[in-house]
Amino acid sequence: MSERSNSQREGSKAETSANAIVFVVEDDVSMRRSLTNLFQSVGLDVVAFGSAREMLQSTLPDVVSCLVLDVRLPGLSGLEFQTELAKSSIHIPIIFITGHGDIPMSVRAMKGGAVDFLTKPFRDQELLDAVIAATERDRKRREDEKTVANLKSLFETLSPREQAVMKLVATGLMNKQIAAELGLAEITVKIYRGHLMKKMRARSLADLIRMTEALGIRANRPEQT
To answer: What CA–CA distances, in Å, run from 155 to 34, 83, 211?
Structure first.
């Protein structure tokens, strides 16, 4: 890593994600200490490990975070660790660092979802920019997951009939068409529609359609005869 001026570090400090943790997995003690000092200098919390196994055996806080991961590690390599995390449905954004990178290695890392792949020596600012991007990606993912979880809770408060009406409304059908699909009176569909809009806290049809897309639900329309 290269030296930076105090003014540059202060500039980065204002841009870094608040309340985020950077996990570092680096077997070289001096490099691990240098990375820790860098991230702490811009106000980030850091938890450092000497190996992938060490991190796997630790209880990690469930907060906005990213992982700065060396490719070459004793035991489980960085790329193998990336695969293990994916298998375990751990979606922490990863920034790879290495002194022995090549194109196939970087392609594999990026295809696996890595945020960046930096070859040593790299500039401090380059790494900090990658960390900022990674923590913001994790923050967005967590916000999206929370939104979907809330929508699922609201959807589960709907009756089976209200759920059916909601799915058909999202396909663009009019009340009369939905009534025909479900074998209901049109006025009944209107009542169900009013109830589900209120329960889902949808302010408009467009709002409701966005909710169905976020939930990934699809209407199972009866076969036409």
So the answer is: 49, 34, 9
Measure the CA–CA gap between 25 and 36, rounded to whole angstroms: 11
Q: At what angle do helices 160-170 and 205-215 cross, to 10 degrees?
A: 110
Q: With beta carbons less than 8 A apart as the criterion, state whether 118 and 96 touch.
A: yes
Q: What are the backbone angles phi and psi of residue 157, rounded to the nearest 5°? A: -80, -10
Task: Identify whether the C-beta of residue 70 lies closer than 8 Å to the C-beta of residue 44.
Answer: no
* C-alpha to C-alpha distance for 138 and 186, rounded to whole angstroms: 45
Assess whether the previous peptide bond of 121 is cis (omega < 30° from 0).
Answer: yes
**Edge-to-edge strands of the sheet including 94-98?**
45-49, 21-25, 65-70, 94-98, 116-119
Q: pLDDT, tens digit, for every residue of 49-84?
A: 999 999 999 988 889 999 999 999 999 999 999 999
Name the phi and psi angles at 17, rounded to 5: -75, 130
Contacts 24+ apart (CB under 8 A), 98-106: 98/70, 98/71, 98/72, 99/72, 100/71, 100/72, 101/71, 105/71, 105/79
Tokens 């920019």 correspond to 129
- Residue 123 CA to residue 126 CA, distance in Å, equals 5
Please write the tens of the pLDDT for every residue from 199-222: 999 999 999 999 999 999 875 554
On the question of pLDDT at 147 being above 60, the answer is yes
What is the model's pLDDT at position 2? 53
